[in-house]
From TrEMBL:
Domain Disease resistance R13L4/SHOC-2-like LRR: 323-409
Protein's GO biological process: defense response
Name by which UniProt lists this protein: Uncharacterized protein
Keyword terms of this UniProt record: Leucine-rich repeat, Repeat
Length: 719
């Protein structure tokens, strides 16, 4: 591989290491393995990233494509075959077995002799293995030891790993008194991972690991206490206690952890934050989401002057202290689902030079302080499902705002302030299920707006002319008087237009008098080349045309027609993968579907369609649901060999099913209340069937159904 050959020796070593490391490992953890004062580890990783050999995710996940990983592992295998003594990485314990091992010995039992021939090992996976014997000088170069599932008993002696920087004991049986804490000498340890160690009641004494920087105790369900030695780890920068639900107290000496940058206590039973926390001058991230016993933040948090992220989601705190203004570097403040918080402090305005994201979703806040408009750096404001009655009149002062979320704020009424038109950076505006009544015509000035979501905003009568930058438009209102003009919105990728007033549906079968006549129905032609998703549920749409002439919706993947008075759909684009037609009681005929070779899901529910012409052409179809329809036949069904699920319900006009024995991939078959279906030919040959329900039709009592049900039960009976 050319790009691999371009790498330096050090970069090649990092590439080969990553090929062996666990998938999506945290890059910050992995970097300890490559620490070299003369060669910064991130320089090597960056070189690999530039050449597209690795990627780093938004949460620092270190990722390598499967083929590249296999390429790297093959290089390692060839090098090890040439000279096993130089092996630096061991992921397969079978390679450690000596030719003359004692017969009858457990496959996961190893002793020092199994590893003595590999003095260059830097990375070793010992998952679920047991070790015994004298390990003096066996691992002089080991830097990363993954020993997940380690047993409670520790029978090795002199297990000295002087260069070890990463120890992973996740899902192990270790306790705080485990023998390994005494026998394993690891003075340079940087990372200790004890995730899901269910037998830990207290964190171990770590005074022998003075250089420890990252301690992970996540998901230790019985952990009740932290050993005092933790507070004296002068280098500790990350302490992860997430979901240790028995932990209800943090050490009073917490403030002694001067180097701590990240403290994660989400999902614990911690009841209060020690006052000493205010002395943690380097703390950047404090996350206490889902701490259901946490009711108070001390005023001493004013001392957290380096804090950039404060997450208190679903905690029971009742107020945010005014001293939050001292967190001058705070960028993200999340109070989502803190249902006891009724207001924000006015002092929040003093975060104007730092705060970028504020989330008050699910709180009892009914009014934003006037000072909030001083948050000039705010990019994201989320206040879904709270009691906000109006947006600040000076909202235009939030000049950097990119996202505004106020969905399910039923108290939010009236028009949107004209000042919103000054939000030149606004990309996303979501006001779903609110009571707003309209917009200023100047909404066109929002030149960056991409998503406008106004579903179930039932006070809106019409929309002004929309901006051409939109990529997603979702609007539904019971009072909508006119459909928005779409012809210039050429960047649209998703459209959802609806009017949920079912009284306006023309329903011939119920003989109800419609509110308007058929000739009042609209012809809708959509020519949007980038459109991927189209959902229509407006009752005045009578005829639909997707594309015109050489212009068509060539990228349309999903089409949903629900509760419209459609009488005709002119043509369906071949790019469709999902087609759903629901409550279209005026639509008696579908256009031919034989050319929809990419369609994977077809739903016909409460439709007057009598036939699916070209059904046999749906060669990729996996899901077919037909319910409450006038469908008369399913000619071509036997050719749908990729079908996984077939549900037929309340189709009284549907005649006999043709032979379905060719549907070898079918997992689910449901036939109910289809009174004309007497038999299911080929049913007993469906070997992949996992769910079969035939009810309230004559086929229910047939021999084919009974035998098929017995065949499905046989595997479970045998097991």
């Amino acid at each position: 591989m050319a790009s691999y050959e371009e790498l330096s020796k050090e970069q090649k070593e990092i590439f080969l290491d990553i090929a062996c490391l666990p998938a999506d490992v945290d890059c910050r953890i992995a970097s300890f393995m490559w620490h070299n004062p003369k060669f910064p580890p991130f320089d090597g990783v960056d070189a690999l990233r530039v050449l597209s050999l690795v990627k780093i995710g938004k949460n620092n996940e270190l990722r390598m494509h499967r083929l590249l990983r296999e390429f790297g592992q093959e290089i390692i295998r060839k090098e090890d075959d040439l000279d096993p003594g130089t092996r630096g990485r061991l992921c397969n314990l079978e390679l450690a077995r000596r030719p003359k091992r004692m017969e009858g010995k457990d496959d996961l039992n190893f002793d020092a002799g199994d590893f003595k021939s590999m003095p260059n090992l830097r990375f070793l996976i010992l998952d679920y293995a047991k070790v015994a014997g004298d390990f003096a000088n066996v691992f002089p170069n080991l830097k990363w030891l993954q020993w997940q599932g380690c047993t409670r008993d520790f029978e090795a002696t002199n297990f000295h790993v002087e260069k070890l920087v990463i120890l992973d004991l996740s899902w192990s049986k270790v306790t705080e008194d485990w023998g390994g804490w005494r026998e394993i000498k690891m003075p340079q340890l940087k990372v200790l991972n004890l995730t899901s160690c269910a037998d830990l009641l207290m964190s171990p004494n770590l005074s022998s690991c003075p250089d420890l920087e990252i301690l992970i105790l996540e998901w230790c369900p019985r952990l009740m206490k932290l050993d005092p030695s933790i507070c004296h780890l002068k280098c500790l920068s990350t302490l992860n206690l997430r979901f240790c639900d028995e932990l209800n107290m943090l050490p009073i000496e917490l403030g002694h952890m001067k180097a701590l940058k990240e403290l994660l206590i989400d999902g614990t039973s911690v009841q209060e934050i020690p006052v000493s926390m205010g002395y943690m001058k380097k703390l950047e991230i404090f996350s206490a989401s889902n701490c259901l016993q946490l009711i108070h933040l001390p005023d001493s948090v004013r001392g957290l002057t380096a804090l950039s992220v404060l997450s208190l989601e679903n905690a029971k705190i009742t107020r945010i202290p005014a001293s939050v203004e001292k967190m001058v570097k705070l960028q993200i403040l999340s109070l989502k689902d803190c249902c006891w918080i009724g207001k924000l402090p006015d002092s929040i305005c003093n975060l104007g030079n730092s705060l970028e994201e504020l989330d008050i979703t699910g709180t009892c806040i009914s009014e934003l302080p006037n000072s909030i408009t001083c948050l000039g750096h705010l990019k994201v404001l989320k206040m879904d499902s709270c009691f906000i009655r109006e947006l600040p009149r000076e909202i235009g002062n939030l000049v950097n705002l990119e996202e505004l979320h106020a969905s399910h704020c039923r108290s939010l009424k009236g028009g949107i302030p004209a000042a919103i038109n000054s939000l030149d950076c606004l990309r996303i505006l979501r006001l779903v299920h609110s009571s707003i009544s309209g917009f200023s015509s100047e909404i066109r000035s929002l030149s960056c707006l991409q998503t406008l979501d106004l579903l179930q905003c039932n006070k809106i009568r019409q929309l002004p002319e929309l901006i051409s930058s939109l990529t997603c438009l979702r609007v539904s209102s019971e009072r909508m008087e006119a459909l928005p003009d779409l012809k210039d919105l050429v960047k649209l990728e998703e459209i959802c237009l609806g009017d949920k007033d079912s009284k306006e549906l023309i329903c011939p079968s119920t003989r109800k008098k419609p509110k308007f006549r058929s000739r009042d129905l609209l012809f809708v032609s959509i020519v949007l080349p980038k459109l991927k998703v189209l959902e229509l549920s407006h009752p005045r749409i009578g005829e639909l045309q997707l594309g015109h002439g050489s212009l068509s919706c060539t990228h349309l993947k999903k089409l949903v027609l629900s509760g419209v008075n459609l009488e005709n759909v002119l043509e369906l684009p071949p790019s469709l993968s999902v087609l759903s037609i629901r409550r279209c009681l005026s639509l008696r005929q579908l256009p031919a579907v034989h050319h929809l070779s990419k369609l994977s899901e077809l739903n016909l529910i409460q439709s007057a369609v009598e036939e699916i012409k070209g059904l046999q052409g749906l060669i990729a179809l996996e899901i077919l649901n037909i319910m409450h329809c006038e469908i008369r036949n399913l000619n071509g069904l036997s050719q749908l060999t990729e079908l996984r699920s077939l549900i037929l319900s309340d189709c009284d006009s549907l005649g006999e099913l043709l032979d379905i024995s060719s549907l070898k991939m079918l997992n689910v078959l449901v036939v109910q209340r289809c009174r004309m279906i007497h038999t299911n030919k080929g049913l007993m040959e469906l070997t992949s069937l996992e769910e079969l329900r035939v009810s309230e039709c004559k086929a229910e009592s047939t021999q084919q159904v009974q035998v098929a049900l017995m065949q499905m039960m046989e595997p479970s009976v045998k097991s």
